[in-house]
Every structure is written in structure tokens, then in C-alpha cells.
Amino acid sequence: MHNPQLNAHGELTHLLSVEGLPRDVLTHILDTAASFIEVSDRDVKKVPLLRGKSVFNLFFENSTRTRTTFEIAAKRLSADVINLDISRSSTAKGETLLDTIDNLCAMHADMFVVRHASSGAPYLIAEHLRRLGHHDIHVVNAGDGRHAHPTQGLLDMYTVRHYKKDFTQLRVAVIGDILHSRVARSNIHALTTLGVPEVRVIGPQTLLPKYVEKMGVRVFHDMAKGIRDCDVVITLRLQNERMNGALLPSASEFYKCYGLSPEKLALAKPDAIVMHPGPMNRGVEIDSAVADGPQAVILNQVTFGIAVRMAVMSIVAGN
Fold first, then answer.
1. Around Cβ 282, how many Cβ atoms within 10 Å?
2. What is the rounded CA–CA span in Å between residue 282 and residue 21?
3. I want to staple 206 with a disulfide (CB 3.0 to 4.6 A). Which of 58, 115, 212, 247 is the partner?
4. What is the layout of strands, in order, in the sheet containing 111-116?
């Protein structure tokens, strides 16, 4: 089965999903990102690898943070960045996704960074470009539906590796709404591919996919049991529409059972790190005392995210 993300030499030409990518490709991205980070860990270098290239940010769904980090990353690579707020313009005119792409190809786009509410949209674009013979135009998935958020998964892996060094000794917990989370899917695929021996998912039955064990994880409905002795704790954002929907009684009920409080975190290893893809609902999935505490690495994730997105863009563009 041909992987649409890889060329005939097994090199990454698009980043559509973490799923199906071999370990050496993931490691190459992480190593490349590391080369972009200054020794202080606080700063990301400027490297002109995409000078003269045009990167189009196509956000069919709102996300200020992801779009901003992609924009910063592309500018650090010296690319020309064009932000299109498509959620308002072309779809309102009834223009199809692929018509939009054709028009932008005519404007000499070199790369599309795509965020879309429909699962599979970035694949559709990559396949369309292949059919038209545009092999030098690359697609990076910035989140599609409930399916995947590969750069978030990769920046999370970078963060884990930065603090824990070795994936093969870790116990990692992913907590919350696994069912609707593209971040959870990307993280689980990346963790298992990189050799983490025990990935745990913790959440109520209603917020876990039906056959989640098939992804190679251990399932816990009890937070105290699930978080015990973990090295890494990843809490997921609870979407507002779930909080008063049929799947959950209330936000406060969720916090009581699955919110990351200092008491629950104390059951993990003393040097466990706490991660969150952001933006956080404080007092719902995570307590402020934890979010602002010494074990949280949430703001470092954002910095590492710039370097990881730079790595992805420079690698798919053939550098």
C-alpha cells in the first residue's frame, strides 16, 4: 500500500498524518527541529531554507494559535507567507475546495498548510495535486476533522524526548475526550511508533472510541489507577459543546472525575511532566495550580512547536 506522504525514495513530501510513518522519518523530523533550537531552549534560529518559496496558510476552520505558529515558522525559514481566511470567503461563494487549490496553484504556491473541519481534506488536496502532476507542491495537515493533527503530535513527541530523553522506558497517560480528539490520535500513533512501551488512555466510556485498545493502548476509567507511576501526563482540551451534551453530565462532574488536580498528579512519578495542546479550560480538564506549576511544560510546547513546524516544512520542501 503506497503511503501518499512519501515519495518513491521513502522521503516525506507531504505531512498528512503521523499514522503509517516509519520511526526513522519521525526521528528525522525531531532531530531537524532540535537543530533549529538555540542552546538556551528559549529561542528558535532563523534559517533561510525556504527563501523564495510561497507558503499558503489555508485555514477553513479557526485556530489562531496553530496558524500563528505556522506563520512564525515559515517566516523563520524566510518563506513568503500568505494567510487566507477561507472560512469567510470562497466557501461562502460556493467555490469548492479543489477550485480554490487550482487558483492558488496558478499563483505559484509551493506549499499549503491546511486546517479543515472535514477529516481527509488534506489527503484530497494531495491526491488532486498528484493527479495534476504538481509534484513540487507540498501539503501539511494543520488539523483535519477528528482525524489527525500531526504537527501537534510531533511537537508533543519533541517535548517528551526533550525532558525524558528515551521513549523506550516511559509510561504515558492521555486523559480526557479521546473520542473526538485528533491530537489524541496523532499522539497515540507517534508514541507507539517511537517505542513507548505503555500508553494509557483515561476517560469516561462515552469519550473513548469503541475499539481504542486496537491502537495499542491500555484503557482506564479510573483516574487514580490510570495516572499512577506515569512519566508523562497529557491532558486534552474538553470541547465546550461536549460539556453539556449527552456524553457528559457537566463540566464540574468531569473535573471531579478526570480533571488534573495537584492531588491526582501526586500519584504520577515525582518528575512527571504535564502537557496540554491548548487552549486550556482551567478548572475543567486541568487545575490552574497544575497548569502554572513546576511540572507543566505547556509553554515550552509552544516554543518547540515553532521548531517542529519549521522542520516539517523544510523537510517536505526537500531540504
1. 15
2. 34
3. 247
4. 80-84, 54-59, 111-116, 138-144
Closest CA to 297 of 273, 281, 263, 280: 273
Q: Residue type at 148?
A: A
Cα distance between residue 142 and residue 146, in whole Å:
12
- DSSP secondary structure code for residue 54 in this structure: E
Question: Cell 504537527 identifies what position?
Answer: 151
Count how many Cα atoms sit within 13 Å of the Cα of residue 229 in the half-sphere of its side chain.
6
Q: What gap in Å lies between CA 230 and CA 136, rounded to an integer?
A: 43
| pLDDT given at position 31 | 98
CA distance 282 to 298: 13
The backbone torsions φ and ψ at residue 116, rounded to the nearest 5 degrees and listed phi first, read -145, 145
**Closest by Cα among 240, 278, 225, 286 to 261:** 286
* Residue 276, Cβ density class (10 Å: 0-12 exposed, 13-18 middle, ≥19 buried): buried
d(CA 260, CA 285): 6
* Orientation of helix 23-36 relative to helix 298-316, angle to 10°: 110
User: For residue 5, what is its C-alpha cell?
Assistant: 506522504
pTM of this structure: 0.95
Average pLDDT across each block of 10 residues of the chain; the chain has 319 residues. List them in order: 87 96 97 89 87 96 90 97 76 76 96 95 97 96 95 98 97 96 96 98 94 96 98 92 71 93 98 96 96 97 96 94
41-46 — which CB contacts under 8 Å span 24+ positions?
Answer: 41/162, 41/300, 41/303, 42/303, 44/76, 44/303, 44/306, 44/307, 44/310, 45/76, 46/76, 46/78
Grid coordinates representing 88 are 469567510
- CB crowding 254-269: b at 16 or more within 10 Å, else e: bbeebbbeeebbebbb
> What pLDDT score does 38 carry?
83
Question: What does the block give as the cell for 87?
Answer: 472560512
Question: What does the radius of gyration of the chain's CA atoms come to, in whole angstroms?
Answer: 19
C-alpha cell, 92 = 461562502
